[in-house]
Amino acid sequence: MLADPYVPHPVVIPSAPAAAVADPAPYGLLTPFVVGVDPVLVPGPVDPDALPSQSSTAEHYAPNLYRQFTLSLGVAAYDNFGTNLRVSGDAGLGATLDLEDFLGIDNSDTIGRLDAHYSFNRRHRVDASFYDINRSGTATIADDIEFGDVVIPAGDINTFFDTQIFKLAYRYNFVADTRTVIGASIGAHVMGINAGISNDSFAVEEEFKVAAPLPLIGLHAAYALSDKWSLNASLEFLQFDVQAYRGFISDSRLTIEHDTFDHFGWGVGFNGFKIDGSIDGDNGLTADLEYGYQGLMLYLRWYF
C-alpha cells in the first residue's frame, strides 16, 4: 500500500561531526638543528638558521658544532720563539737584534689564555681572545749597540719583550650542515708591544711601546666526528698597510674538542703566530719586527 503523502517523513538528525583536523598549512617544521626522531609542528615562521632548541627534529645536526656561547680558559705552552727587532729613532737606524740568541731572552713560555664566542645563529658568530706573553733575559755584550735614540754601552744588558694580544673577529659560515662548517672571517688583532734594553751599570735604557690594531681576514672549518668530538681549524692572515703599520701577519690554529658533560668539556690543540712588519711606536720610534712562535694549548670549556 502506498504511503500516505500527508504523513511526514521522519527527520534524520545527523550526528555531531568529528573534531576538525587542524590545517597544517600555517605551521612549519622546526628548523632541523638538533638530534631528533619525529618532526614537530610549531606555529609561526621558521628561521632556517636558528640556534638549537630542545625540540626533536627530522634531521640530526651535531650539537657540538652550534653552541650559542662558549668560554674557554686554559694554558698555552709556546716554544720556538724567534724575535728579530730593530728600533730606529731620530738618530738613525738602530741595530737589528736577535733577542733570543744574542740578548738571552727566553725561548719558551707558558701562559694563560682566554677564548670566547657568541653565535647569533648557525651562520653568524663573533669570536674574541686574549693572552699576554712576557719574556725577559740578560746577556753580556762586547760592543755598543744602537737601540732607538740611544747607544747601549757594552757590558751586562737586561732586555724584555712583552706582547698582549686581544683578538676580535666576525665569522660567517658558507656551509652549515649537519656535520660540517666552512666559512670566512674578518677582524683585528690589537697587539700591544713593550720592548726595552738597559745597562744598569751606565744607567742607560731605551723602550719601545705601541698598541697596534692589525686587520685580519681568515678561513675556518669544523667537522663533528661525533656528537661529543669535533675537529676545528682556522687560519687568519693579511698583508697590511694601515697608516703606521706595514707588513704581514698570520695566526693558525688546529684543535680537537670534547663535550664531556652537558655544559662542560675540554680541548687540546696547536697554535702558531707570525708577524713581519714595520710599526711606528707611541714615542716617535719605529720598530722593524720579525716575531713568531708556536706551541700546544690545553683548555677547559663552558658552553650552552
Structure description:
With about 300 residues, the protein is an all-beta fold. It is built from no helices and 15 strands. The strands form three sheets. Strands 3-5-6-9-10-11-12-13-14-15 form a ten-stranded antiparallel beta barrel. A two-stranded antiparallel ribbon has the order 1-2. A hairpin with a 5-residue loop joins β14 and β15. It is elongated. It starts with about 25 loop residues before the first strand and ends with a strand. The N terminus is likely disordered.
Structural class: mainly beta
pLDDT < 50 stretches = 1-9, 15-43, 54-58
Span between N and C termini? 84 Å
Strands of the widest sheet, in order across it, are 3-5-6-9-10-11-12-13-14-15
Question: Based on DSSP secondary structure assignment, what is the total number of beta strands?
Answer: 15
Fill in the keyword field for this structure.
304 residues; mainly beta; ten-stranded antiparallel β-barrel; two-stranded antiparallel sheet
